[in-house]
Structure formats: structure tokens, C-alpha cells
Amino acid sequence: MKRALLIPIILMTNQLIAQQAVLQIKGFIKPPIARKEEVKDIYFNKEIKDPYRWLEDDNSTETTSWVEQENASTYDYLKKIPFKDFVNRDLKGMWNYVKYSNPTKEGPNFLYYKNDGLQNQSVLYIQKDGKDMAEEFINPNTLNDAGTSSLGSVVFSRNKKLCAYSVSKAGSDWQDIYVMNVERKSMLKDVINYSKFSNIAWKGEEGFYYSGYDQPNEKNKFSAKTEFQKIFFHMIGTSQKEDKLIYQDQKHPLMYKSIAITEDEQWLMLSLSEGTDGNELQIADIKNDPQQLFNVLSKGFDINQDFIDYEDGKFLVYTNYNAPNYQVVAIDPQRPQQSNWVTVIPEQGNKLDGVHRVGENLICSYLVN
């Protein structure tokens, strides 16, 4: 019993010491007092005050000055905490070990992420046939001088000779998409800007689909509302200005759009969402319809649903329609009404948390307890 109580007692003692040490800190720079404005809005017949709205203007000199003063106060306070260096060393010691991700296979190559310990971003390595020595493929820590870039999507073309990957800088949602020759590890001239919340869907080796926006105002692109996301197709070897507009919706400015393509490249699969819950699935038969008109496969936005694959003329869809714990259904694009859906994997007692196709199998993961 004494051994069982030892760790909680030590933790409580350290916590009390830490609280006392913080309370004893004196003489630090006082934080600024933000001025208030008489700003009011009426929502649903209720008055809502918003006195600090002026701070939302990240381009104003007053906001910049306030942030600088706030930072000065914060860092002056933190540096005077007596046990800060101990905590810093302790955390680094706990985090400083080599970490690997699960490998993936792209053609003859295996890829995996590795972090030597305290790297800001894990490095993507490539290893041919699993026999040769692994080499750095993409190191996001070297993509800018500050080491604050991170990798998003990393997607290989159908023959695995080209790789398109997205990069975010300093935690921004804005992403740039680059294209690399896999064998030579050389960059192509193709660069896509103004992408956000986008996946990458290759069509053979000729190019890829992505979600993007019109060029934003550089002055306030990190704070301004982004509206009217569109789907484009980029042909390899051309400039972004030549990208073909595939889909847009002028009636719903905040709609998010995600695009994918079936393995046989007959269908484009479009997922539309208005937020973090609820979406709609649409499809376009690009093989037989040169106009690429999208039709609703499963209407939204009262349910959550995702494409899994396309097999034997039917779409496999992961959905919580009439199944709070989720199920997998097959939907015939010629008869997409819900009454015609066929259950492939029925709902279970535990939540079906994810479904992936591997060869001829569906790998399901369930959330238990």
C-alpha cells in the first residue's frame, strides 16, 4: 500500500512546490490592458457585446503593439520560473528517442517516417525493394530556414514515377503542392499555390485533381475568411494558370470539397461538407460523360459518409445512415436511392472506426471501450 501511494504523494508534493514557486515570482513585466470598444451585434434578438473586435485586425499597428507587449510579459514571466530549466531538460529527455511510422509500399519502394528524437518534423524515407539502404525522400525540416514547414498529403502517380506532395508553412492552413520525379528525386517546375484542406487525386500520370481557391489578398490571407473552394485539374508540365476548373458552387461559399478518382479512372468521387458533421457524396462519369457533370450518389447533410472503393459497378460507402455505430453499404450509381442500398458490413455493438481496402479484403477497425 505504501508503494502504491508513493507516486501520488511525490506528484502532489512537486505540484505544491511548483505552485509556491510560481506564486513567489515578482517583478515581471505587467501584461498590457486591452482597450474596449462599444461594439454590439444582435443575434436572434439578443444583444452580444464584442469589445475586443479591434484585435481581429492583424494588420493594424495597434494590434501588433499589443501582441508584442503581451509576448514580452509572458516570456519575462516564464523565464523567471525557477524550475523551468529542469522541466525543459526532463521533457527533452523523455522525448529524445527514435520514432518510426508504419511503412507503406509504392511500386517497388517502401516509405516510412522517422524522427531521430527532437526533430520538429519527422523525415520521410524511401527504401527500394526493402533491401537497399533507406534514403531521405522528403525532409520537411529543411524546406525553409526556420524549420517550420510540415508535410501534408504525399501521393504517388499511377505508375509510381511521380510524387505530388503538399507543404504547410508555420502551421498555416494554406498549402503549396510540389511534384517530384521519384527515381531522380528531382523537382518538376509544377507548383500549385492557394490550396487549402485539399487532397491530391492523380489521373494516370498526366496530372491530378485538387481543391483550391482563387488567389487571396496577400496582406490578410492568414486572417481573412476563405470562400468558394473549387476543384481543379492540373496537367503536368503546365502552369497553374492553365488548370482546368472541374467543380464550383456559387450558392454555398463556405462549402468544402474533396475529390477522388476510382482505380479504373471512370468516376470522379466528390464529397461536400458544410462543417465538421454531415456531408454529401456526388459522382461524375468522366469516361462516358465529357461534360463531367456531377450527380448525387448519397444526399446530405444529415449523415456522415465516405467513399471506400468502387467494385463490380457499385460504390462501397462507409456511413452512419440508420447505423449510429456505422456500417458499410454498396450503392449502385444507376439506382442510388437508399431503398436500394445493400449492406456489406452491418453495424456492430462497437463503433466501426475505419475501413480500408487491402487487395481483395476490407480491413475494419473498431472502437472498443
Summarize the structure.
By secondary structure, this protein is mainly β. The protein is 14% helix and 40% strand.
Describe the protein in words.
This protein is mostly beta strands. Helix content is 14%, strand content 40%. The chain contains three helices and 24 strands. It has helices at residues 2-23, 61-79, 84-95, and strands at 40-43, 46-49, 99-100, 104-106, 109-115, 123-128, 135-138, 149-156, 162-169, 174-181, 186-203, 207-212, 230-235, 244-247, 256-261, 267-273, 279-285, 295-298, 305-311, 314-319, 327-331, 342-345, 351-358, 361-367. Strands 8-9-10-11-12-13-14 form a seven-stranded antiparallel sheet, with no helix packed on it. Strands 3, 4, 5, 6 and 7 form a five-stranded antiparallel sheet that branches. A hairpin with a 2-residue loop joins strand 19 and strand 20. The chain starts with a helix and ends with a strand. The model is unreliable at 1-10 (pLDDT under 50).
